[in-house]
Specification:
By secondary structure, the chain is α/β, with parallel strands linked by helices. It has 21 helices and 30 strands.
Length: 661
């Protein structure tokens, strides 16, 4: 009998068949072809050979791998939630099991579980002196450093919640973030620049108590208190658990701001249930206490904090922190500390590929690269150059209510969602994910004659939504009700139901693999056709001399919709704009993109504006467009007459816009 790829032996084979047999369910046939449904009936759910299964369901092997991986994580997650196994319980367990074991490696210093817990006790005893009500938010504005973790644990020991402030913020965005947090206390980490940023807005925060780490009192402005000096005078004795009050799954653990790709950041609510659930995620690839994780992306975002830190804590493993991401030192750190799991976001992998090649590129102990945002155009290059055995890409959102993941090494996929998976892993009403037909021009889901939404079929693009567990719902954001209401899609499959909208469009292929397409709003309409910015970017970014590209839509006077425009960065070693390069870009766009999707304008830039989750911002680019009074960078237009991109100048500006581009 032929087994599914990945089966270790006959016993394992029987286990996998049993898993299929156990999930017989009417909705398993959802979106199957007529031929497949007939085959299902012919083979019979029970006792069918895997040869028969794979003949009619070629995707069944990937399904089994995914179901088994997610089942492990869900089993642990549910157990942890039932037991109320919070971060503090995990920390205390690890202190009891192996107090001297290294929890954090930072700048070649090792910090044990015992030491981190003792420092957290000092913070907790200090926090009790503030006499704040339970669950009061306390703002933390810190880079990646050990103090970030023991400050967070200390606040939790005192029954308080943490608000993670982006330390890059200045001026009005910083004032906004601090004010909406409603935190009466602010703790800032090491770095004179953070102190300076706050001094510039001091008048806006007159009543906030302010602590600074890494400075002596004599060197601080009078409004700040030297936290290190206070902690030295504070005993590291543990507080009674009663100080935390009665623990609930609905309690706010922390607030993590969204990345702000389209405006000011919003504080997403991370309650105890969501935090505990996140801590079991890495069971999908058997993360264990012997692993060493590397966290270089900011801890004030969920990818690094809820994923790397919480999963490390769950297993009693070790995490390597770096104050800020450095492409040049990345693999040096990985080798030195024998890192086994790296976590990436956004364009981090692209930055690593820009570093000159080295004979040591594939010399390391990494067994898994886990993250989200790895673009399909560099997936294989990243995997092959750095010899990464396994890439596990996932899809989720800080404020989201669902997640899916690619555990099969399928290039470019962010997960899968087959009929079999809907009948098993995603059958629970509180753990469902759907993809809805979407009208890009109206920016709303398509509805049938009864006013209900329509699921997509394989080969189509749809909006990602997930179910909301009403028993655990405490709001997506800290803020007014209207802010949360915008994230709901209502009357989806029946009147009165509601689902969370991720605001993302994905493509489902014939084998039920899922591929990211665009954010809502990133898809624009031109010449009565929908244009996907990511698809255009993927085509242009494959040109050898191009380092990165950011595609967006711009308005043209007298025309409906938005025309395509691409901001382009050339590679450092080949950054001259030449006639040959312009003709090449034109030729690639003409050959590989339909007429309506070809960028009518291109703008050459030396650097892009990126968010702290390493995503390219579009807001400023859209506002500036091709306006020569606002843009100093060279801009070129699609010149079909000369079969190239030609310079847009003040002389030809009006003529170009009035022509039939």
């Amino acid at each position: 009998m032929t087994g599914i790829p990945g089966c270790r032996d006959a016993e394992d084979h029987r286990v996998q068949v049993a898993e299929i047999d156990d999930v017989a369910h009417p909705c398993c046939c959802y979106s199957m072809s007529k031929k497949q449904k007939v085959a299902l009936a012919a083979t019979g759910m029970a006792g069918a050979s895997l040869v028969a299964w794979k003949a009619f369901f070629p995707w069944i092997g990937d399904d089994i791998k995914t179901i088994r991986a997610l089942s492990k994580a869900l089993k642990v997650s549910r157990k942890n939630i039932m037991e109320g196994r919070s971060a503090l319980k995990m920390l205390e367990e690890n202190v009891a099991r192996f107090p001297k074991k290294t929890y954090i490696i930072f700048e070649d210093r090792h910090f044990s579980y015992e030491y981190v817990d003792a420092m957290a006790n000092r913070v907790a005893n200090l926090a009790m002196k503030w006499d704040l009500p339970l669950h009061t938010p306390v703002a933390m504005m810190m880079e990646n450093e050990p103090a970030f973790l023991w400050t967070f644990f200390g606040l939790r020991k005192a029954g308080l919640s943490a608000v993670f402030i982006n330390f890059h913020l200045k001026g009005n965005p910083l004032v906004h973030s601090l004010k909406v947090s409603e935190a009466p206390v602010l703790i800032i980490g090491q770095g004179d620049e953070h102190l300076q940023s706050l001094q510039e807005i001091m008048s806006e925060l007159p009543d906030m108590k302010k602590y600074a780490i890494g400075s002596q009192q004599a060197d601080l402005p009078p409004e700040f208190i030297a936290m290190d000096e206070v902690l030295l005078r504070t005993l590291p004795v543990p507080l009674s658990p009663a100080c935390r009050g009665e623990q609930s799954l609905l309690d706010p653990v922390c607030y993590i701001y969204t990345s702000g790709t389209t405006g000011l950041p919003k504080p997403a609510v991370i309650n105890q249930a969501k935090a505990i659930s996140a801590s079991a995620f890495w069971h999908i690839f058997d993360f264990n206490e012997n692993d060493i994780a590397y966290a270089v992306t900011p801890l004030y975002h969920s990818a690094s904090f809820l994923i790397s830190v919480y999963n490390t804590l769950d297993q009693g493993a070790t995490v390597v922190l770096r104050r800020k991401f450095s492409a040049r030192h990345y693999w040096e750190d990985v080798r030195k500390h024998k890192v086994t799991v790296i976590q990436y976001i956004g364009e981090l992998c692209r930055y690593l590929l820009r570093v000159p090649k080295s004979d040591l590129d594939g010399v390391h102990n990494v067994r898994v690269a886990f993250g989200n945002g790895l673009r399909v155009d560099i997936w294989e290059e990243f995997k092959n150059r750095f010899k990464i055995p396994r890439i596990v890409e996932f899809f989720g959102a800080t404020e989201g209510t669902g997640v899916f993941t690619n555990v099969t090494n399928t290039v470019g996929a962010i997960g899968r969602m087959s009929p079999l998976m809907r009948a098993t892993i995603y059958r629970d009403i509180n753990f469902q994910i759907h993809f809805l037909k979407f009208d890009n021009s109206a920016e709303k889901p398509v509805r049938d004659k009864n006013g209900l939404c329509i699921p997509i079929k394989p080969g189509e693009v749809g909006l990602v939504i997930s179910s909301v567990n009403e028993q655990l719902y405490t709001g997506f954001y800290k803020g007014p009700k209207e802010m949360n209401e915008k994230k709901f899609v209502r009357d989806v499959f029946k009147k009165g139901d509601r689902f969370f909208s991720f605001g993302d469009l994905v493509y489902l292929d014939k084998d039920y693999n899922i591929y990211f397409r665009d954010r809502i709003g990133d898809t624009f309409r031109w010449k009565s056709e929908n244009v996907s910015t990511s698809e255009v970017a993927n085509v242009i970014s494959r040109i050898p001399f191009i380092r990165d590209v950011n595609v967006y839509g711009v308005t043209i006077p007298g025309e409906d919709g938005r025309a395509g425009m691409a901001a382009i960065m050339l590679k450092h070693e080949d950054n001259q704009i030449t006639d040959d390069k312009l003709r090449t870009i034109y030729s690639v766009c003409q050959k590989e993109l339909p007429v309506y999707a070809r960028p009518l304008f291109i703008r050459f830039m030396s650097e892009f504006i990126i968010t702290q989750t390493m995503k390219n911002r579009k807001v400023e680019l859209v506002e500036e467009g091709y306006d020569l009074q606002k843009v100093d960078d060279p801009i070129y237009f699609y010149d079909s007459k000369n079969k190239t991109y030609s310079p847009l100048t003040r002389t030809n500006y009006e003529g170009v816009l009035s022509s039939k581009l």
